[in-house]
Design brief:
- With 622 residues, the protein is α/β, with parallel strands linked by helices.
- It has four domains: 2-169, no CATH class; 175-324 and 480-539, Rossmann fold; 328-429, no CATH class; 439-444 and 549-619.
- It has 27 helices and 14 strands.
- The longest helix has 23 residues, at 367-389.
- It is globular.
- Pathway: Amino-acid biosynthesis; L-asparagine biosynthesis; L-asparagine from L-aspartate (L-Gln route): step 1/1.
- Residues 209-585 form the Asparagine synthetase domain.
- It catalyses: L-aspartate + L-glutamine + ATP + H2O = L-asparagine + L-glutamate + AMP + diphosphate + H(+).
- GO terms for molecular function: asparagine synthase (glutamine-hydrolyzing) activity.
Amino acid sequence: MLVSKYGYIGIKGKKKSRHLGSSYLGAFFSSPKILETEFLSSSFGENSVSVFLSILDGKLASNSVGVGALFDVDKKELILTRDLFGRVPFHYTIIDGSTFLFSTSYTSLLTQSAVRRDLKPDVRRIKSYATVHGDAMTLCNSDTFLTNIKSVLPGHALRLTADTATSVPLLRFRPSKWTHLVSLEEFGEEFRSCFLNAVRASDKGPHERFASHLSGGMDSSSVSTALRFLYPDHPLLTLYNKSNTLDSDENLYAQAVAEAIGSEHHELIQSTNDFDLLREYIALSGQPSSKLSSPSSSWTLMKFAQSHHCDTVFNGVGGDSVVGTGFGATERAFADGNWNVVRQLIEKRVPYFSLSHQYPKWNQLSFEEKTDIVVQNFLYKQLSNKLMHSSLSEFWRLYNAVSKSFHISHTYFLRRGFTSLVNKSRRKETSQVMSVIREEMLKQSEEKDFAAMGLLDDPTDQAALRYSFRGVFNRQTLLVNEQDFASSTHMGMVSSSPFYNHELFELCLAVPDVVKFGDGIGRAHFREGMKGLLVDKVRCRSTKTPLRSHAQDVVIRMFNDSKELLFDSKTIWEYVDRQKFDHQLSILTNKKIPYNHKVDTRFHVSKTISLATWLADVVQVD
């Protein structure tokens, strides 16, 4: 039988049920029309049970899988499946070794008295969450923030019996299927086809009208442009979050795209009610916030779209990690000692050198002079990194090998080294730390779990593939997806992220980094694929959205509004070192320290506020 939140449906043999619509198990929507068809995900409706079981057993390949549950009465086995990218949450708990509870709503599990009875925050999960790059560099696994609630892995089936729990991948990425593609033009053509198919597939219409987030960056601009290309006559709203700060406003790029596609364009000022929105955001998902500061920007977009009768908001989320830049090609060539390739790639990068603004006469320099600066900058980073993370003998071995192929400017190195020492001296007041978690908790080790890597089928070039794969299937991304789903469904909306597409990501995994690197601008296969679609002002831009100076104001505002909760709480300080936190807070509020020296500080303060809110409002331990 198949199980949904409304009960169960008995199925015999290969008979298909007409009532198995495409939807999310356990989701809730405001439209009664949607509720009528909300049973299980499309993979159950498209395949007979016997076919689906063959997929589970690895006898058949599948290109799609959704959230669903199947109970085998004969084997007394419960099978839970989750969509490939974890866009829909799916959690479960086992009570007294005999009762399984599962839901796409984390908070619905928390309403059960038997679940609340054994609530215990997972210290290792909290440590990862509150450590700089901790979640972003860790593959997603079954752990959640509570020890008695687990997660079904994205793209996997969890097979549960009274005695066993086995997770098996339902889909796999096979980059080798694209080996027939060689040139940039071939990859670009295939990317265009896959991307348009991904946007089309992510559309769950029909809609009265739909909206698209348009930041001015290449990802959201491409999604908005593809929507207009696919639906030329459909009403399309494009939404831009205006920052009101000159150093980070991208409105000219967004306006250029909006004018090119003829959308109804709106510039929005995000809410300043940051802490109240944070509390609601956490309450809806049942987990600490995935945001680096406040959820107000995404909340403002969704609310505006909702007020304008849009049921879907498209976005470019996941574009960076799915597409890839190719910039890792230079580091890998350096690690392999392929000096000619290193020089060739660096020369291509010269026109796009990100530190050129530090050289007042940059535009007056010859290409050779510019190249030498970029080479010295690259060598300095590589050699100083080697010096810090290896023995002195290993460093000298590398130094001698490099000096045979490159001129190493000792003047440049001394100047950079002196500047680095001065900056470190000035930054002593910032005392950057990786985490404000208490020392005894930081010492707790966590076993590495590579189960999610089962989705990657190809054994070739594992280093590059694993890096790209981890960029998509990590804890941070999964938490973002789960909370995005919780907040959008609360509003009766759909948040659509077309970049999370099986075929598109598989293709991007197959593109060699040297092809992605292109002429030095990066993402060359993406740019090639968008020729003739995306306006060149955005398609050919080499810059990204700069660090936003107003972010520190948002975090300070959140802190001021959360003071009572923070300092009336005893529990948060069982996890966070109060002395470390107070020091980070003093850095954040020090106006003499530049905002770009406070990136980690903002992280520490905002994550502490989020954890304190979760402990007080969800776990309810204070």
